[in-house]
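Morning!

As promised:
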Amino acid sequence: MSLSIAGMSWVTPLGSSVNDVWQQLVASEVAPVETLENEQNGARYLVRRVPTTLTAHLPPHPRLRRASAISRFAAAAGLAALAEAKTPPSLDRVALVFAISNGGVIYTRRFYADIVKSGAQSASPLLFPETVFNAPASHLAAILGISGASYTVVGDGAVGILALKLAEDLIASSDLDASLVVAAEEIDPLVCEAYRQWRLLRDPRKPDIGRGMIMSEGAGAVLLKRSNGGAEIEQIVPGANFFRRSEALARLGFVVARLKNEIGFCVGSANGTFIDQAERAAVGDGMPLYSPKIALGESVGASVFWQLITAAKALETGTLPPSLKPSVHSRALVLACGLNQQTGGLTLRFSRPGG
Amino acid sequence: MKSDEQNPRRVAIVAGGIVSPLGFGLTETLQSLQQGRDCVMPVTTFSVEKTRCKTAAQIDDGRLLSKADRRRRGRRLHRASYMVMTALGELLEHAPDFEPEIAIVGTTSGGMSFGENFYRTLGNGGACAAALIANYPPQKQIVDAMEKFGINAPAQVIANACASGTNAIGHAFNAIRTGRYQRILAGGYDALSELVFVGFDSLQAATPEKCRPFDSNRSGMVLGEGAALFALEEFESARKRGAEILGEIIGYGISTDNHHLTQPNPDGSGPRRAMEQALAQAELKPHQVGYINAHGTATVLNDTAEGKAIMELFGEVPVSSTKSMMGHSLGAAGAIEAVVSLLALQHQFLPPNINFREAELSLNIVANQARNAQLDCAVSNSFGFGGTNATIVLRKLAR
């Protein structure tokens, strides 16, 4: 089943206007890098953060009063994607699907830190509900007034593919007209430390080498409807899991083989880790391959949506950043390889009016 | 495969597997349900010195880990992985040929206690084991279990708080019903953790007393843990290959209550919409339902809202919350209670709502002891933080 993207939006360290960020990607600009320090052990991490100004315009909804950054990013992206739809769907026939990996880690760390430091009697009843994976989705549903289906899907960097697949399955039911699919992540030193100990982060003393990833944060959102032109997701393939990093290539190869041929270029998930090599080998040397993570950083759960929006803009404008000109009739492959076992991919095409 | 909503497929349950405080496997679970066994006990896995609530329903680690892989990799896995392996092992004993196209499962916290250990070790200046990080994520436990049994399918992990397990089974049901899949592994899992335990304690949602769902003197929930899985298959496909069909899923409803992040709208409208949808999809009238396995956490707010919705919609249909026996296992609860509902249909009995003393609402509570009954259909409810409401309807196989 083909799905058209009726609206799309992102909140990234480079900005939140789809076109402005796109122009910066084409101009090979990269988001600024700053250093984050972990108070627990003094470790330092390179990170790309979303400027606070990007969520300052949000409506003063009670649900956002105490909400963490992740919920604010999600609200900004979700509202903008809905606003972009030429024909806004009736919200009682819209499902909300949310993709997440690390989730509301800032409040989770604070909540548990209080327990460790001062004992269970000090635990905050205000923070605990925000630690739940579906808290950002709940806030967004309340802000938008979505009262039907709402699903939060958790996983690694490929979770966006699984969430999009869930949305496709929901739209296949005649009960729904559209699905708003949103993903968001926030940066916290605890998450950075986990990836550092996993030896996946870039060495802060060597920021300019390409090895190791730079964590980032933000959100992405797409409003999906049954196909009616424009950017269309043709096929979504959630991949099998890999158990050793050496198996990632085989799993990605399986995903690529299941997707349709005539792919002109790939927007991948390369982030400076083992994924880069596996992904290149899976698509072959001849395939143009671009990863927005070079410029925007690794946003884990949100990353597939940044890839998807990049691919849609590349098809629409006929340019793959920085300057490649793929065939206007080609399809884009969005390939996702997570850091913890999951894989997946999708194909995207652009139907021009009268074309 | 193309979807075809006009020609919905029937969805068969061809196998199940379960581990919970009620027991290891379907047989032990059935016995515990029929005996009304109270599995709640003092918490042993972390300190509860400074919490108000001090009990939970726990799975015996000695037994859970007795068959664990003691090689290096196996030793590193979270106990939630072994819960899922136990449930999947039982399921595959009954359906060894079952090859799911996808796993759709629910959880709320995966390997949370590994995340706690990671944080504590870091604070103590110790070297953290990379295995804590690798085995903490919530998708890891189902992936571990599938690897153990050679199943190579994607894992779609739904984290809709306490409704996760029912949402997973319900979504899997719809995905087969609309013809998009033939075979899905569906269920849920969660293991007890300090962070979650203290969280519910901080909200004063957990009780220091007995768990008494729907009782006028109820004072809150107790936590539990476990895993349960169903092998779901398109009915005709299962019948043609001669699979044993244990029952059917025939309806699913989902709604979102935007009243509050942690509190249901007291008018019960959120749960009611989920139940109405599920009944409509099942093409059932309320009186055709023989048993309702309620969400029934024993918190004042949940039981009032759910009880009101059940009373208005179902009237005298028998209701129980089996959380009174085995605690609330969060992301696993919906899956475990779906298995409980299936066992009730297969063995024609009503599982009890134990610790019940005094009614508050005019509900037909299955108080304290299991009852024999003639049942064709059962409803299982799950509601959660974030306002998620989910209901499934199960039917026994007509002989």
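The CA atoms of residues 14 and 243 of chain B lie 7 Å apart.

Hope this helps with the figure draft.
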